[in-house]
Amino acid sequence: MKIPGDDDTLRQALEDVNLPNLLLVLATITGDDSWLGEEFAPAPIVAPEGSLFPDDSGGYSTSQRARILEAAVKIIGEVRAGHQDLGATPNLERFHRMLQFSTGEVIDQEMAAMLLEETRFVDRDEQWLPALEKLNRERSGEALHVVIIGAGMSGLGTAAKLKRAGIGFTILEKNAAVGGTWYENRYPDCGVDTPNHFYSYSFHRNAKWSSYFSKRDELYTYFEQCADEFGVREHIRFNCTVTEMCFDPARLCWDVTFEDQTGGTQHLQASAVVSAVGQLNRPSRPDIEGLDDFQGAMWHSARWQDEDLSGKRVGVIGTGCSCVQLLPKTAAQAAHTVVFQRTPHWVAPARDYYKPVEPGLLWALQYIPYYAEFHRARMILVFGDRSWPAVVADPDWQDQSVSVNEANHAMRSVLIEFIKEGLGAKQSYVEHCIPKFPVWGKRLIVDNGWYETLAREDVTLVPQGIDRVTATGIVSADGEHHDLDVLILATGFESNRLLSPMRVLGLGGQELSEVWGDAANAYKGTTVPGFPNLFCLYGPNTNIVHGGSIIYQIECQIHYVMQCLTVLAAGEGRALDVRSEVNSAYNESVQSLSAGLAWGHPSVDSWYKNKAGQVVNNSPFSLQKFWAVTHDFDESDYRLLSHGANE
Ligand code: NAP
């Protein structure tokens, strides 16, 4: 990496960097651990009220700060001049020590091991890549061919790894472009609630995110670039919708049927199928009487129509993440907005949600050696498992009705104050805005002006529920008719029936949708007994609620799948079928853990649960634990099917 500019450029950039992180950079380049000594120990991280970003600047005195910055200018300047090499990347023991030093907190060694891979100081691909490369060389001509369904973040991530391993693959994508959810969702202010320096592939960092929480267009552009930079675009067949796949036990492969852009039916044969269809790709149309009678314009948040709302009376059904994100923008345009709420959600204060990435940090992420690595680790520590203790139920907690432990209850109190403050003059709304389930029962919504918007004079909250829709508006449960020109359905997605409407036929012709019903389950969220060589990314019980990036979860799964592929590549005509008893034991544990978490609380009714109240979508694990669960493939968990050796 060439470092541009001179000492003044460097000095200017360093104004915006995190000093505890910078000390890790200096220690790594010089190999000198005196930079991690008592003298430079940072002050504890504190969370200023209302801010998303904790104050983790280190609390150094002016003279300490000057000393660190001058040393950094000198050391990095030497690197720029070619007089100093980059030093050795830290091993686990040193990295662990570094993280504990820079945060002033006790960090689990397993967490450090995970972050070592997330920073790519350790290349996790080394766990499977050499084996696959060797097998590819030995078995040229009779290689595996994988079909990936979907070119969103799971599909593109998998494709990148298959490409790296030299395994043949085809991606079938129903849309005309890549990006999945970030292609489809275009509602106003659509964006992430996890900082992008974490919400991006660990193996394809982007040093140029303009904001910490980027908006849809920038995310979509990132995935478009990934398709090109991974060199996988030529493998994608756009406008192709998979309708059916059927496992052939004689040939030990999948026959995949899909509809192409002409409406014609086509077939592909695959040694393995990776389902990368996501959990939230089928908009849910609410079952409300009269919905079809509405004569005004009506659309779902995930099928946004760029209509000018000026002067219009707009109704919005639903108060989940999508509604909270879009409402401030649409309400500012519309003449009047009516929000139809069934259940209030918890919304977290986030006054710096729109914070741009500081110019100096942008520079540091691109040019200061190791800075981006340590920054990613820090973002994961701050925005990942930090909230985990607050979601785990404490059996001794006295009031189990609305909170699950003391920290959870404390958060509830903070958020109730935030509601009161945000609603300003509309204090009559307060009782309707306080959820009756524990905080983190559903993913905490990052605020972008929700309560201030509800407090606007031209916005009305209807908490009574909907009786019916008419040609000209909505009748709420109290009998009032609300006249509307436009109706926005922010009513979420059909999430429990994973992989549907595809027809998936496994061993013995069993159909996956029947095997699962509305209680989808898979081993490590990925493999299903009786459906050999089918790998579900972002499958059952993999969604995260407490905090963190879904790309992280997906990468953990991809890593696991690549290890499975080493077994398939080791012999011709092989299939892996997860043992039914292994899957059952795993999922019993998933359900028992889920029951003890905020989102398993009986008061929570959400898209994560099926009709019986079982958690189908969410992971019961912290990020650290999910990494550990998916890290190592154990062949004894599977039946290895091979030609002639099985029925
Ligand atoms: P959602 O969380 O499922 O919210 C749907 C809303 O519609 C809920 O308020 C629900 O009420 C309401 N609703 C559904 N059917 C209804 C009916 N028949 N009558 C009245 N109200 C009805 O959907 P979403 O807001 O699209 O978010 C889905 C997920 O997408 C989120 O949980 C999150 O994982 C992801 N997301 C993330 C972001 C982000 O910040 N990055 C942004 C948007 C979405 P109930 O609560 O009573 O069911």
Quick one: CATH superfamily of the largest domain?
FAD/NAD(P)-binding domain
Portion of residues in helices?
Answer: 25-40%
Whole-number mean pLDDT: 96
Q: List the total number of helices.
A: 19
Overall tally of domains? 3
Distance between the termini: 56 Å
Q: How many extended strands?
A: 21
- The CATH class of the largest domain is Alpha Beta
Major sheet details: 5 strands, parallel
Residue windows where pLDDT falls under 50 for at least 5 positions: none
Strand line-up in the sheet with most strands: 3-2-1-7-19
Whole-angstrom Rg: 26 Å
Strand content: 5-15%
Give me the CATH fold name of the largest domain.
FAD/NAD(P)-binding domain
CATH architecture of the largest domain: 3-Layer(bba) Sandwich
Can you walk me through this structure?
This protein has a five-stranded parallel beta sheet with strand order 3-2-1-7-19, with helices on one face. The chain has helices spanning 7-14, 19-30, 62-81, 92-103, 109-118, 129-138, 153-165, 181-184, 216-229, 321-333, 359-367, 371-383, 406-423, 430-433, 450-454, 512-516, 550-569, 580-595, 623-631; strands spanning 145-149, 168-172, 236-237, 241-248, 253-259, 265-270, 272-275, 297-300, 313-317, 336-340, 347-348, 445-446, 459-462, 466-469, 473-476, 481-483, 486-489, 503-505, 534-536, 574-578, 638-642. Helix 10 (321-333) links the parallel strand 9 (313-317) and strand 10 (336-340). It contains 19 helices and 21 strands. With 647 residues, it is an alpha/beta fold. The protein folds into three domains: 7-107 and 360-386, no CATH class; 144-282 and 495-642, FAD/NAD(P)-binding domain, CATH 3.50.50.60; 291-346 and 392-489, FAD/NAD(P)-binding domain (3-Layer(bba) Sandwich), CATH 3.50.50.60. The chain is globular, with a radius of gyration of 26 Å. The site of NADP nicotinamide-adenine-dinucleotide phosphate (NAP) has 23 residues, from helix 10.
